[in-house]
Design goal:
alpha/beta, single chain, 286 residues, 10 helices
Length: 286
């Protein structure tokens, strides 16, 4: 891997394997993962948060490994919706505001919101809904009001359009975005992490015979290529730590998958990575 490469979407508190019951923060595991990134030449990591303190600990020691580490502390999700394993939930705007304040008090670098749920790998086009348009606007406005950029987990046209229009600073995943939604991302200047590695891992380990997975992967790779052609800010985000995506190794594969999708344009990825690094410092939103 090239020295100084980035991964703009990881979960340092997850192992890449199925989560055990009663998962707890393990400092040794965090150090081991940071060491793996350092040895792979990774110099910048943007985490997606957790509720066990792993990413905050990583941020406090990452400099020892020559890594610039940014974290939202934890992800914010709607009560009853996807995200409980990496964050905390809200049921109304008062609770949402309190969670943003909590992340700020913990020393977060930005705010992470879960605008939609997880993909259904067995059915193309299916994913869980989560935040309403009104809630998306409220979350982005509150975070920006505190000076924080917003990292947003989202799939589907409605959520992507709403986030772009609300001024979210990055779209994570963005599966099933139409050409119009991708054009909106490109026009907004928001960072987009297409996260191909989790789908590729599910597709290849073991051979699944799942036609939906192949269709999901192909459509996302094509979407990334379309976005790049429009000048969208596309960054490398492997979702490392998620099932089947090992730390550091996932970074390498994400570069490879995106480079193929973008016809070998590593330069495009470097530009996107640098834009993500610029946007996701603490108190820099404008």
């Amino acid at each position: 891997m090239l020295s100084g490469c980035f991964d703009c979407h990881i979960h340092i508190g997850l192992s890449g394997e199925r989560m055990p019951a009663g998962r707890a923060f393990d400092p040794a595991s965090v150090r081991s993962r940071l060491k793996a990134y350092s040895e792979a030449g990774v110099s910048f990591l943007r985490d997606g948060g957790d509720n066990i303190g792993a990413s905050l600990y990583a941020a406090s020691i990452a400099e020892e490994y020559g890594i610039d580490f940014r974290t939202p502390a934890f992800a914010i999700h709607k009560k009853g919706c996807y995200g409980s394993f990496i964050g905390y939930s809200f049921s109304d705007e008062a609770e949402l505001r309190a969670l943003i304040a909590k992340a700020k008090n913990l020393g977060c670098d930005f705010i992470k919101i879960m605008a939609t749920g997880i993909l259904d790998f067995s059915r193309y086009g299916k994913f869980d809904e989560a935040l309403t348009r009104k809630e998306i606007y409220a979350a982005v406005e509150m975070a920006h009001g505190e000076g924080f950029a917003v990292m947003a987990h989202a799939n589907g046209d409605e959520a992507v359009y709403s986030l772009v229009q609300a001024g979210a600073d990055s779209i994570e995943h963005g599966f099933y975005a139409s050409k119009g939604a991708i054009e909106a991302i490109a026009g907004s200047g928001a960072v987009w992490c297409p996260t191909l590695s989790p789908i590729a891992s599910a597709l290849n380990s073991p051979p699944s015979g799942n036609n939906a997975l192949q269709r999901i992967y192909s459509s996302q790779a094509q979407a990334a290529a379309y976005g790049a052609a429009l000048g969208a800010v596309i960054a490398v985000g492997s979702d490392a730590g998620s099932l089947g995506v090992p730390h550091a190794i996932g970074t390498k594969t994400e570069y490879e998958y995106l480079a193929i999708a973008l016809n070998g344009s590593i330069e495009t990825l470097h530009k996107g990575n640098n834009k993500a690094k610029e946007k996701f410092k603490r108190f820099v939103w404008k």
